[in-house]
Design goal:
Elements (H helix, E strand, L loop, with lengths): L2 H23 L8 H22 L5 H30 L10 H23 L3 E6 L2 E7 L1 H39 L5 H40 L2 H29 L1 H8 L22 H7 L1
Antiparallel strand pairs: 1-2
Length: about 300
């Protein structure tokens, strides 16, 4: 791996880890909603492939299983984030904690179980070996195994695409209705609408970036099935930028559009009390009743 690329990998991984650590350690209830829980889970899963990429010297099948485990988990996690945003926007109160702890825990268990299934296939894979100096390393899995593993991942990606393409437009439509019904003179209502718009942008970036990665995965299955070596080399060259986009774009967007997150990152201490609309010192946890009635 080129030294410059590896340095960039470490910098991005370090910045991502700092963001996740600060959110995880925060005791503020604002960061304890299902959105931030699944954001932490998804971002953590998304960074696991870099463990295999950065630290592998000799081949270790466990590292490849971690890679597949992370890719599958991050895909399901982003699907959960999309579904949660729609649930929040659809509910009249627009509370971020629309899902109970029990529901969140059940969804997390399902995520872990489904992510583990492809690891079984990886364990029984065959590999193509090459000699690097005096060390025998794995160049990649054989074509038959690529077809099977990529088909499994593409199934998850396909479900993600279907769910996202259905829920994202519905969420956008609901946001438009809220904006049309919001009264400009109500300061609290204005903040709620602004916050929901920003959260929708974060979710939209998650969907678009992972959609691009999904297309790449479908192409991997196609090239492995028909043994298109040259096209496979092109896909391999595009792996790093596409993976950067899918892994870090949501975090960057969240930092840009979320003032509480920026406050948390630059402060040595935890941030003060936050309302669901992200402002300091506001205790209101739901939309005003007059506003709720107008969007039903």
């Amino acid at each position: 791996m080129d030294v410059a690329v590896k340095v960039v990998d470490y910098i991005l991984l370090g910045a991502q880890s700092y963001l996740l650590l600060r959110i995880f350690l925060s005791r503020n209830a604002y960061f304890k909603t299902p959105f931030y829980f699944f954001f932490l889970v998804t971002a953590t899963f998304a960074t696991t492939p870099f463990i295999e990429k950065l630290f592998r010297i000799r081949w270790n099948g466990i590292l490849q299983m971690i890679n597949v485990f992370g890719v599958t988990g991050s895909t399901i996690g982003k699907m959960y984030i999309t579904a949660h945003r729609y649930a929040v926007m659809k509910h009249s109160s627009m509370l971020e904690g629309i899902w109970s702890n029990l529901v969140t825990a059940a969804l997390c268990i399902i995520l872990l179980f489904i992510s583990f299934i492809p690891c079984v296939t990886i364990y029984f894979c065959g590999y193509r070996f090459t000699i690097n100096g005096e060390v025998i390393v794995v160049a990649y899995m054989d074509d038959a195994c690529i077809v099977v593993t990529k088909s499994e991942s593409c199934t998850v990606y396909f479900i993600f695409i279907v769910v996202s393409l259905v829920l994202a437009p519905l969420t956008s439509r609901q946001l438009y209705k809220i904006q049309q019904c919001a009264e400009a003179k109500q300061k609290t209502t204005s903040k709620i609408v602004t916050q929901q718009r920003r959260m929708f942008i974060v979710v939209a970036v998650c969907v678009i970036s992972h959609f691009i990665k999904s297309i790449q995965q479908f192409c991997w299955v196609f090239t492995a099935s028909f043994h298109l070596t040259e096209f496979s080399a092109v896909l391999a060259s595009l792996y790093t930028p596409i993976h950067y986009l899918a892994t870090y774009s949501a975090s960057v967007t969240l930092v840009i559009f979320s003032e509480p997150v920026r406050r948390l990152l630059i402060s040595w201490r935890d941030v003060g009390k936050l309302s669901p609309n992200g402002s300091i010192g506001v205790r209101s946890s739901a939309a005003p009743s007059t506003f709720v009635m107008s969007i039903k």
